[in-house]
Amino acid sequence: MTGANNFFDRLLEQLHLSQILTDPCATGAGVKVGVIDSGIEQTVIREKHPQSLPITGVIYRPESVKPLAYDGHQSGPHGTVVADIILTLAPQVQLYSVDVFGPSGGSDVETVIRAVRHCLDEGKCHMINLSLGVPESKLIPNQRQQFFRVIEEAYNRDVLVIAAAANDHPLTKSYPAVYSPPLISVNKGIFSDPLEFIYQHDHAIEFQAHSRGYLGLFTREPATSWAAPHLTGICARILSLQPNLKPFEMKTLLYWLSKTRRS
């Protein structure tokens, strides 16, 4: 096994994996990211990222099966912070806002499932960021199966889903982040470089990324909600270099990138 490890180490050195994230063409161009959250305030994003592409999207509410038109506004600041993080790392991505929370700040599993399916069928997204989660105690068995099925469908359609872990006790299960095989699950961490992340091979939540935001003082508190879009931005940068990467290929590449950048 030692010989095999040495072989892969030499191979990775030749591939220059550590240079992928700093490639000048790694801007997120050509990548469409669905942000299922509390909406995106387009004027805030335009002021901070004047070169960013126009944001499109829809609004989902529990009381309505069909989506409403996106009007360029947020129902809460959370989604705008997530969008800002993604654009900070991948300034040329196309953001697709799916507001599932509304003024009350609450949503439900069925609405999130419909939002994910919409990103697949109508939004034509290459990636989906889920800086949200549902505690296991609030899921009934049928919902757990439905949730897993739509995440699995995204995987089978080569759409990369990145989900934030719970901010609570490390043993707290939060869905869909626990579905780690077909998606990329992210925990919070503090890094000096926002492009830094680690792979945790012995953890249920596989990755750890930078977990501070850049809009407002409340975003300076580390949170998994801010860690997920950091990894989303990183993946968007990689996809802009190689658009045909499948989710399992992306996860493998992230593992090697983590290994080489920290060695």
Descriptive overview:
This protein has a 9-stranded mixed sheet with strand order 3-2-4-1-5-7-9-11-10, with helices on both faces. Strands 6-8 form a two-stranded antiparallel ribbon. Helix 3 (78-89) runs parallel beside helix 6. The chain has one domain (30-262): Rossmann fold (3-Layer(aba) Sandwich). It has helices spanning 2-15, 42-48, 78-89, 109-121, 141-156, 224-241, 247-262, and strands at residues 32-37, 56-61, 64-69, 94-99, 127-130, 134-135, 160-164, 174-175, 184-189, 197-199, 207-210. The longest helix has 18 residues, at 224-241. The relative contact order is 0.17. With 263 residues, it is α/β, with parallel strands linked by helices.
Describe the secondary structure blueprint for this structure.
Elements: H1 2-15, E1 32-37, H2 42-48, E2 56-61, E3 64-69, H3 78-89, E4 94-99, H4 109-121, E5 127-130, E6 134-135, H5 141-156, E7 160-164, E8 174-175, E9 184-189, E10 197-199, E11 207-210, H6 224-241, H7 247-262
Helix pairs in contact: 3-6, 4-5
